[in-house]
Amino acid sequence: MIDAKPKSAGSGISSGGFDIGRLLLEGRAFFALILIIIVFSFLSPNYFTPSNLLVMSSHVALFAILSIGMLLVILNGGIDLSVGSTLGLCGVVAGALMQGVTLPTLGATLYPKVWVAAVLVCVLGALIGAVNGVLIARLKVPAFVATLGVMYMVRGIALLMTNGLTYNNLGGNPELGNTGFDWLGFNTILGIPIGVIVMAVIAVIGILTLRRSAFGRWVYASGGNERAAELSGVPVKAVKVSVYVISGLCAAVVGLVLSSQLTSAGPTAGTTYELTAIAAVVIGGAALTGGRGTIRGTLLGAFVIGFLSDGLVIIGISSYWQTVFTGAVIVLAVLLNAVQYRRRVKPAADSTGGPSPLPKRGDAVTADAVREK
């Protein structure tokens, strides 16, 4: 429940009025993004131009879609290290389908339509997510171990399928009726890249799901206090499997978009993308312990990472330094998260002058769910 009484200084509202410290702390991803835009616009006149913003946004869309799926997993109290490998395998499968599927028994080669290949790839991503979910929810394998093992297996399958090589020229052949794969990567609607539109659609669906549906409340509740949620009738195991399925599905979508942008599919695509997705979620203010976080914050986190990386490229900073800067941002975000959630549970004086009881872990779930609205 949300306390209707005025909050104390420790909660963010001081006796003198609004606490600017809390504003800066909770809005840090937004302010960081504004600062990045200002700094790089000063360093390069080409940074904050409409054309470059669209290019950067198409890059960010990949991280953002992946991060939305990761957010649901982290809200549920888990972690998914396999999304980068899932992305790579899905891209490879899409590339193999576009090259044609040979049936030795029939002596023929099938060239599926692009939409058929896209559906099959999305099903594959969901199945990989389901394997993670079953291992974790049903077989009680720790999330870190389960997804780490699946990460290696999936990457290995991608390497075996291609023998370490890359599928090129995925544009298709008009005579075979399999053209249009590059539509996701290069086409625009009203000047907006398709990848950005896909990101926006997935984000809106995710926000509505967390705000309006029982499933969204179950995700927050089971991540905040799994045992209490189970006793309250929440289908904890089904929810856990579902969030991993959604994460795998998001990874498959990113695999399609990335392969389309590159017009090629390689088994090493998506390497370290899982770390970028986790970083975006953390920078956006989500707690790695589960139960706290929003899609809006995660999107801001993805834009912070994407705009920072592209800005460093534009001004000619070495890729090694880019890794250093990104890592520093992640460490800072984790430290600020720790400060934010420590402040949230700090004892405050009640109306009688004594310390009020510490909020239960489940209480923060309700507060975050309301804040998302």
End-to-end Cα distance, whole Å, is: 15 Å
C-alpha geometry: globular
Give the class from helix and strand content and strand pairing: mainly alpha
Sequence stretches where pLDDT stays below 50 over 5 or more residues: 1-16, 347-373
Report the portion of residues in β strands. under 5%
CATH class: Mainly Alpha
Radius of gyration: 22 Å
CATH topology: ABC transporter involved in vitamin B12 uptake, BtuC
Q: How are the strands ordered across the major sheet? A: 1-2
- CATH architecture, by name, is Orthogonal Bundle
Question: Number of helical segments?
Answer: 15
Q: Would you tell me the overall average pLDDT?
A: 83
**How many independent structural domains?**
1
Number of E-type strands: 8
Oligomer: single chain
| Element string (H = helix, E = strand) | EEHHHHEEHHEHEEHHHHEHHHH
